[in-house]
UniProtKB/TrEMBL annotation:
Lineage: Bacteria, Pseudomonadati, Pseudomonadota, Betaproteobacteria, Burkholderiales
Protein source organism: Acidovorax facilis
J domain location: 3-60
Protein name: J domain-containing protein
Transmembrane segments: none
Gene3D superfamilies found in the cross-reference section: DnaJ domain (1.10.287.110)
Amino acid sequence: MTADHYAALGLAANASLADIKKAFRQKASFYHPDRNDAPDAAQRFQAVQKAYEVLSDDTARQAYDDNRRRNLLDDPLHTAQEIWQAYSTRILTTTTP
């Protein structure tokens, strides 16, 4: 499964660069392994870093968005499963104390 960079930052696909930067700072601070002792903190921190790397670069973001659109058209069932999994994971992790 490919990473959903927008989900890693908690953003919609139409997010502005300012939104991306703000979300990155918040998520990176929260998941930084020195501040968060959760077992998956380092992995989530790396996902946030990679998401920012891709989404903050206009060329990389355009390629990523084009690939997302192509995947949706090529395999909609798989894409729907990925979207649902990312959504349910985000809901479960934000509602769990």
